[in-house]
Design goal:
about 575 residues, alpha/beta, Alpha-D-Glucose-1,6-Bisphosphate, Chain A, domain 3, TATA-Binding Protein, seven-stranded mixed sheet, seven-stranded antiparallel sheet, 18 helices, binds 6-O-phosphono-alpha-D-glucopyranose, binds zinc ion
Length: about 575
């Protein structure tokens, strides 16, 4: 069938299968493949695994087998990705299987590019039935590295476990993939191509998303800051998907200078980088920001554009503080929150800084397990406006994903609002001033996370089992060095909207002074096990707020290492990443 066929072809021209869309659908026999269970955020594996014969096709077909036909037949699905290696080939496979299963239309970002938050925005704006995101987020890309796929449904939110469990179940019994016999779609030109009644629209990945952001923020306020000669801004796109967004938004719309964007071209291997905006992997940006006379504001985003890191000159804003500060300032600095946010939420391991803002502003507050999908129900139910995770995720109910560029614009709005009456030559209120003022008002929650990446799964699992056992034997009042236990548990969450229960979400020891040590295995790695230890301690005394977090937390870190016997179980002397 030619790509420009507008009329449905006659049924007799497709002898293989009934073709309600007027295209031929071929049945590809297949067999179940082990290990297609999705983690915290979709299915992630080495790209070589995804490139094996039917690996991707099986999962996509299993997804269609899991949805009710009314959720996709003749419907619209969005497709986008972070530009990593294999996305182009994968786009073609997904489009053909979608057509083979009776989807009516695919909206795909030009060159297959669309950030995770933009996919969420487009699903909502175009009233699509859902969408696919081709990304392994912050994991490196290229022939030797990772690939991933995630499905979001009609609210723009990652599919809940009830759907992903079904998909997994169907991957274990799959026998056939339905593929439309259509040519590869040219993803380089905007516009609609029809194949029978099925069509593909290649869309600009930026415009719908930018329009939404313009409704959330006061762009002229932000623009007035970015165009000041006494304010220097730098954004590191890490050669990942926000490269496609940074220039149109920060430079073309908001007037930042064009040299304020670094690594602004999305590359299939992220320029050999590890596109995770933290102190370890965004080191180039950190070095620039810590130089004498460095820029006033620095930010970075990850592979698929949903994470963010915010820096002031010589100053790192920890993500747990970032969401608290955005929440505390949202009403005055961001038009979308006029009248005040509805409620606030954080993931369990994220520090309690946000809790204090909720308390002071008298807002609804929720603590959910790690994973953005847990926020969506609360948003849909009108209970939640602003939320965040220690894992560099911050966002709001403008969409149903965390949003890196949103976080940068939120921070720029706060800085702009604080400085809107400052004349040239007057000293500006800086990022670090804003954070320190916040600590002075609310107290400081010192926080750090230690990651031990790619450990042997066996040792890591044994360590968690050991900790669960310890929890079951522990009781309030137990002494842990100089700390007294308030309680210890393995976090369980009951969704207040639909009553669903998520258990075994992280082992936590909470002490009587509010300090916490928490242990989890990451659900986003692609090889081995990543152990995460989260350490937190509250400090009300502002004379101690300038202390380095690693020094302030040293006694608790040592306690966490000894309580967990981490060295014995994993053989690891040192973490791979500290944030
Ligand atoms: C992704 C998810 C987040 C999660 C983070 C870390 O970015 O979207 O919700 O907090 O990964 O998850 P992990 O299971 O690796 O700790
Ligand atoms: Zn991401």
């Amino acid at each position: 069938i030619s790509p420009l066929t507008v009329k449905a072809s006659s049924p007799s021209s497709s002898p293989t299968v009934a073709d309600p869309l007027g295209i031929e659908i071929k049945s590809v026999p297949t067999k179940p493949i082990e290990g297609q269970k999705t983690g915290t955020s979709g299915l992630r594996k080495k790209v070589k695994v995804f490139m094996e014969e039917n690996y991707l096709g099986n999962w996509i077909q299993a997804l269609f087998n899991s949805l009710s036909p009314e959720d996709f037949k003749n419907g619209i699905l969005v497709l986008g990705g972070d530009g990593r290696y294999f996305n182009r080939e994968a786009s073609q496979i997904i489009i053909k299987i979608a057509a083979g299963n009776g989807v009516g239309k695919i909206l795909v970002g030009k060159e297959g590019i669309m950030s995770t938050p933009a996919v969420s925005a487009v699903i909502r704006k175009r009233k699509a039935n859902g969408g696919f995101i081709m990304s392994a987020s912050h994991n490196p890309g290229g022939p030797e590295y990772d690939w991933g796929i995630k499905f979001n449904y009609s609210s723009g939110q990652p599919a809940p476990e009830s759907i992903t469990d079904k998909i997994y179940g169907n991957t274990l019994s799959i026998s056939e993939i339905k593929m439309a016999e259509i040519p590869d779609v040219d993803l380089s030109c905007l516009g609609v191509t029809k194949y029978g009644n099925f069509s593909v629209e290649v869309v600009d990945p930026v415009s719908d998303y930018l329009e939404l952001l313009e409704n959330v923020f006061d762009f002229s306020l932000i623009g007035s800051l970015l165009s000041r000669s006494d304010f220097r801004f730098i954004f590191d796109a890490m050669h990942a998907v926000t490269g496609a967004y940074a220039k149109p938004i920060f430079v073309d719309k908001l007037g930042a200078s064009s040299d304020s964007i670094s690594n602004g071209v999305p590359l299939e291997d992220f320029g050999h980088g590890h596109p995770d905006p933290n102190l370890t992997y965004a080191k180039d940006l950190v070095d620039i920001m810590y130089k004498e006379n460095g820029p006033d504001f620095g930010a970075a985003s990850d592979g698929d554009g949903d994470r963010n890191m915010i820096l002031g000159r010589g100053f790192f804003v920890t993500p747990s503080d970032s969401v608290a500060i955005i929440a505390a300032n949202a009403e005055e600095a961001i038009p979308y929150f006029q009248g005040g946010p509805k409620g606030l939420a954080r993931s369990m391991p994220t520090s309690g800084a946000l809790d204090r803002v909720a308390q002071k502003l008298n807002l609804l507050f929720f603590e959910v397990p790690t994973g953005w999908k847990f926020f969506g129900n609360l948003m849909d139910d009108g209970k939640l406006s602003i939320c965040g995770e220690e894992s560099f995720g911050t966002g709001s109910d403008h969409i149903r994903e965390k949003d890196g560029i949103w976080a940068v614009l939120a921070w720029l709005s706060i800085v702009a609002y604080r400085n809107k009456d400052k004349r040239p030559g007057e000293t500006l209120v800086s990022v670090s001033d804003i954070v320190k003022e916040h600590w002075a008002t609310y107290g400081r929650n010192f926080f750090s996370r230690y990651d031990y990446e790619e450990c042997e799964s066996e040792g890591a699992n044994k360590m968690i089992e050991y900790l669960r056992d310890l929890v079951s034997k522990s009781k309030s009042g137990d002494e842990y060095g100089s700390y007294t236990l308030q309680f210890a548990d393995d976090f369980t969450y009951t969704d207040p909207v639909d009553g669903s229960v998520a258990s075994k979400q992280g082992v936590r020891f909470v002490f009587s002074d509010g300090s916490r040590i928490i242990f989890r295995l990451s659900g986003t790695g692609s090889a081995g096990a990543t152990v995460r230890i989260y350490i937190e301690q509250f400090e009300p005394d502002s004379s101690k707020h300038d202390m380095d977090a690693q020094i302030a937390l040293k006694p608790l870190i040592d306690l966490a290492l000894s309580v967990s016997k981490l060295k014995d179980f994993t053989g690891r002397e040192k973490p791979t990443v500290i944030t």
